[in-house]
Amino acid sequence: MRNNGVMDKLATKEYTNIDQKVRDAQIELLYQQTKTGLIGALIVALTACVIFWQVIPQWKLALWAGIIVLLTIARGGIVFAFERRAPLTSDIDRWAKLHVIGVIVSGLTWAIPFAFLWPIEHPEYQAVWPIVVLPLSAAAVAAYYTWTPSYVSFLILTALPISLRFFFEGGSLYNILGLLCLFFIAILLRAGQVMHAASVRAFILGIRNEALNKNLKVEITTREQLNVRLQQEIADRKLAENEIRKLSKVFLDGTNPCFIEDLHGNIQEMNNEAVNVYGFSREELVNKSSQLLVPDGDHEKMDELIKLCVEGKLVRDVECLRLKKDGKEIPVLMTLSLLTDEEDNPFGIASIDSNISEQKNIEKQLTKSKAAAESANATKDKFFKIISHDLKSPFSSIIGFSDLLITEYDSFDDLERKNCIQEINTSSLNAYSLLDNLLTWARTQTDEIRINKEKLDLKELVATSISTYLLNADSKNIKIINKVQSELIVSIDKNTALTFIRNIVNNAIKFTHKGGHITIDSQVNEDSISLHITDTGVGMSPELIDNLFQIDKDISTKGTDNEKGTGLGLILCKEFIERNGGSIIVKSEVNKGSEFIISLPLESD
Known about the structure:
- Pfam families: HATPase_c (PF02518), HisKA (PF00512), PAS_9 (PF13426).
- This protein is an alpha+beta fold.
- The protein has 3 domains: about 1-215, no CATH class; about 235-355, Beta-Lactamase (2-Layer Sandwich), CATH 3.30.450; about 450-600, Histidine kinase-like ATPase, C-terminal domain (Heat Shock Protein 90, 2-Layer Sandwich).
- About 60% of the residues lie in helices and about 15% in strands.
- The chain contains 21 helices and 12 strands.
- The chain has a 5-stranded antiparallel β-sheet, with helices on both faces. A 5-stranded mixed β-sheet has the order 7-9-10-12-11.
- Helix 1 (about 1-15) packs antiparallel against helix 9 (about 170-235).
- The longest helix has about 60 residues, at about 170-235.
């Protein structure tokens, strides 16, 4: 009971200021990432000066660049001062305010080009400023996501002026670009919100793990001290008569089960705590083998420990299992001491058990916390990859082709213009599809998606799902065959079902060569319906199948027409199928196609 009180006090002390600790960790990481951001911003500014040196008055560029340099030096000095502060006495909120002020000033400085450095007489250079500034805005979200006021301020002050400038210029194309900029801001704001929430959860898990580790060390130290004291008291009683020595060792520590055994392991005496803990009476154990208290699989281990003790070797704090009368196993730390008479002749063994059930429970809790932290980190890493690369790529294409239209519009014929518009449209659709998957995934991480099951016709559900991708299939001359039986009723959530069927069909289209076909069939089982989606595509290796639904594995590959993906869709599919009470398995061979088998519950009576 005393040890439990110590643990409770330590746990209370560790969790009291968890919000402050999270804030400290957020600001610490914020300043760490600010150094890289300052260097990157300075490089971008100097690059912009080189690009616009001949099209904008040079004194304006030089003045603007000088302001950027001075701000970089000033903010670098703040970072330098933060790193050398006294952590125990430093006001972390003051440092957070300083960072936000620095970000606002920097954001205003980066807004200047769209008012005073805009190349009015050079339309071909007008799209360059967004290409320079928008990636910088996205990088700021990725760097400052731990502190919302910082990344929101910088994003709004740098990206919003771009949109306003496009609307000010007027015209259909500029209006479209202005709307795209607003869409880009909305995406980054949502992305920053999700990353911020993930970082808070990760910090909380880390702080709690640290507290549990400290508690475990205190408990282990306490038990070691108890065992040392027990050994010392045993040594102090060596001069007493054998019977007195037996009794003193049996009752040395009333809180732990103790036994006196002969040199063959037969129990001669036991204390009251042994009776209470293991449930055997003295009559059931005295003059019986101590193996009655040992599980079948540990008999040889116990014989070896007794042998070592008889040989005079120290057997201390050995982890073992004890068996209660009701068959329940208890983990203990066992200490065996050799008993000798006045002439140092051995006559018995003293056994002391320390119950470590509580310690084992703490270890299990630590293991679960570690697994949760690793999962959170894997989720965060996947999210960062999508934000920094996959989500950026479509916008690069949109900006690139729109810039090409601006600069080469008069020299292009109608077909070339149509191709550029088609590329912009395709990139926009890809960005929307990726964003849809990304936001859906984010909702699953925060348990915002609710499953509302209803009775649905499976054939109609499949027809609705594949209708979205018929044009994609036609563009690759791929035939989609819906062979699902009519009037098959399943109990399932419609929205999530549409999502996982669409994702799997889209995946099949992506990895099927031109001229191939995709078959969707059904099979009625005793208590479920199996939906089989089979393609004639490139297939998969066993290693790829094993990692197909793992969030921490990067399995994204290009399709047969170089279609891009993130690997996020199949992870969503598995989660939605399981939330609907179903399951999914994959069968595939390289160059022989793939088959996704979804098991869905039948309509419940």
